[in-house]
TrEMBL record:
Protein name from the UniProt record: Defective in cullin neddylation protein
GO BP annotation list: protein neddylation
Region annotation Disordered: where it falls in the sequence: 110-129
Highest taxon, organism lineage: Eukaryota
Molecular function, one GO term: ubiquitin conjugating enzyme binding
Length: 234
């Protein structure tokens, strides 16, 4: 290769895959959108997109996809969000592009990690080892579930469902019993951002037998009530 040819190769811009990304978007978008500004992928389109990516639409990988796209609404991806997300995830224009994006998302999901309490009567939990990436996804999940930016809480049933979705495979001791308790607690109808944050800290740091629980710590009342209820039953 000549010096000029090598210089030209070095200086040529990276290939722009916008057209390929937008072409892929058209396969999944809702048909009733009148123009590109209103175009979005809805629930049905997301299921088809997940199928083509090879990811489970009922797993937290879908939340990770929406996070990478910067989605503002749960269960929707706008055209601009899709374009942004696919660029971030390294979409190219070959026929396996979406499969490769799906594989990258699944690998990212496996790498998220979070702490796991030791199970067993009288055992203590490990100290929290939640990764910054997982903490970021957890925080984003709350924001995604808000019905509007004006609303500061999310419905309890949605919050508990998403809590279990994000943490359900973690083997953390308190995830399932805490959700069962809160589901039955009639004076809790919604979860705010502080409660959501504290729920993660609680399940990743609290010993199964509550041996490291202190009444002096500023847990939300609903978590204090959970501890008191569990101790009464022991």
């Amino acid at each position: 290769m000549s010096r000029n040819a090598r210089g030209s190769a070095r200086s040529s811009p990276a290939k722009n895959f916008d057209a390929a990304i937008l072409k892929a978007f058209q396969k999944f978008r809702e048909p009733e959108a009148n123009n590109d500004d209103e175009a979005y992928i809805g629930v049905d389109g997301l299921e088809k997109l997940c199928d083509e990516m090879g990811i489970d639409p009922l797993s937290r990988v879908l939340i990770l996809l929406q996070k990478e796209c910067g989605c503002a609404t749960m269960g929707e991806i706008t055209q601009n969000e899709f374009l942004t997300g696919m660029k971030t995830l390294g979409f190219d224009d070959d026929e396996f592009a979406l499969k490769k994006v799906g594989t990258k998302l699944k690998n990212s999901d496996r790498a998220l990690g979070h702490s796991s309490a030791t199970s067993g009567k009288g055992a203590k939990s490990s100290s929290s080892s939640t990764t910054p990436e997982f903490a970021e996804l957890y925080k984003y999940t709350f924001e995604l579930c808000r019905e509007s930016k004006m609303k500061k809480v999310i419905d309890k049933s949605i919050a508990l469902g998403m809590f279990q979705l994000v943490l359900g495979d973690s083997k953390l001791h308190h995830v399932t019993p805490l959700c069962t308790y809160l589901e039955a607690k009639t004076d809790v109808n919604a979860i705010n951002a502080d409660q959501w944050s504290c729920m993660l800290e609680f399940v990743t740091t609290m010993a199964p037998d509550f041996s490291n629980y202190s009444e002096d710590e500023a847990w939300p009342v609903m978590l204090d009530d959970y501890v008191a209820d569990a101790r009464r039953k022991d």
